[in-house]
Write a structure and sequence with these properties.
The chain is of the alpha+beta class. It contains 13 helices and 12 strands. The chain has 3 domains: about 80 residues, Winged helix-like DNA-binding domain superfamily/Winged helix DNA-binding domain (Arc Repressor Mutant, subunit A, Orthogonal Bundle), CATH 1.10.10.10; about 150 residues, 2-Layer Sandwich (Beta-Lactamase); about 90 residues, 2-Layer Sandwich (Enolase-like, domain 1). About 35% of the residues are buried.
């Protein structure tokens, strides 16, 4: 498998001969270009394998029997299955790269956009959609985990307190809480000051794990701080810039079905994106999801190529391309990888100082 690429589902299958691998690769590439089932005669005529159509038919029949190809009822040709596409990406695709002139153009476009996070995300979505002719999805870079800065507890009435939480990343959260027994302003101030001294700069996980001697009221406040910080960590992960969704609807596979519209609806509702984005935070390299991999029913007719970008695990976003399974995988994967590299360089220039620390 090409370096830096991970398939969400790994496959097992019978070992293929060199000719069977060549036939499968040709069928995938031809079907990707034409959206028409591929017959043995076309393979022989167009690619000159030096064997008869009967021999190729036998090889294609074997590939179908093994689950790599399928035979549409209305055609004499064959098309790849999910398993066929997966084998192609893992074993036959090669390490494709965008042509140098396209890389130069893309990099020039980003450097013209200035230090504007929104512009970077919009441009990345536009570039990916154009290059891969699919639906591009891009999130802005953000600090992966928030850090505690300041807490204020303000008495509103006897058993009601306003909690104001300020994070180092500039996020301010307010939450009205009801307590069992009234607390004096002095107690609220003392509690706030204690947490401000003990928790400054810590993440939600570090606060939850920190060994502290707390009374019942303070324990409740700590848990609320952790909950609010975890909410903040997950907010914005599905604030996605999209471009080229019409490309999915225009794909021949979706012309006479509702599959394309179901995918668009799933993306608009953000449910699917929330799951994918959280998984991307713990992944590396380019991730390839083919046919939903049995996990995402809304993607059963699609493939998604995703990559995280940013600086280490501290400032990150993700980007990707969604399209039909009949996708030009080499070009799409290379585009996602390259744009991810460019965005990572830009994020590093904006957020990281010369000592490799966050500014």
């Amino acid at each position: 498998m090409p370096a830096g690429i991970a398939l969400a589902g790994r496959m097992m299958g019978k070992i293929l001969t060199d000719r069977q691998r060549a036939v499968l690769a040709l069928v995938v590439r031809q079907y990707t270009e034409t959206a028409q089932p591929v017959g043995s005669k076309a393979v022989v005529e167009q690619f000159g394998l030096g064997v008869s159509p009967a021999t190729i038919r036998n090889e294609m029949a074997f590939l179908e029997e093994q689950g790599y190809l399928m035979h549409p009822h209305t055609s004499a040709g064959r098309v790849p299955t999910e398993m066929g596409y997966r084998f192609f990406v893992e074993n036959l695709m090669g390490d494709a790269r965008l042509p140098e002139h396209e890389q130069t153009l893309i990099r020039h476009q980003f450097h013209q956009s200035g230090l504007d996070l929104d512009q970077w995300a919009r441009l990345a979505a536009t570039v990916l959609s154009r290059v891969a002719h699919g639906a591009a999805l891009v999130t802005k870079p953000r600090v992966s985990m928030s850090h505690f800065k300041h807490l204020e507890l303000i008495s509103i009435r006897e058993t009601m307190v306003l909690l104001v939480l300020v994070l180092q990343e500039g996020v301010v959260t307010q939450r009205m809480i009801t307590i069992r027994e009234s607390e004096t302003e002095e107690t609220l101030t003392r509690t706030s000051n204690r947490f401000n001294d003990l928790l400054r700069g810590l993440t939600a996980a570090e606060i939850a794990e920190k060994s502290l001697t707390l009374n019942l009221f303070e324990s409740g406040i700590r848990q609320l701080i952790v909950d609010l910080m975890e909410e903040s960590d997950h907010e914005g992960l599905v604030d996605v810039y999209r471009h080229g969704l019409v490309n999915v609807l225009e794909a021949p596979e979706f012309a006479e079905t509702d599959a394309g519209r179901q995918v668009i609806q799933a993306l608009e509702e953000k449910r699917l994106l929330g799951t994918l984005s959280r998984e991307m935070l713990t992944s590396s390299g380019v991730q390839v999801i083919i046919g939903g991999e049995g996990r995402w029913q809304d993607l059963s007719e699609c493939s998604v190529i995703l990559s995280r970008y940013g600086w280490h695990n501290q400032v990150t976003g993700f980007l990707g391309v969604l399209g039909p399974m009949r996708m030009p995988y080499g070009r799409t994967i290379s585009a996602v990888r390259y744009v991810s590299e460019v965005l990572s360089e830009l994020v590093r220039s904006l957020y990281v100082d010369s000592d490799e620390q966050l500014r």
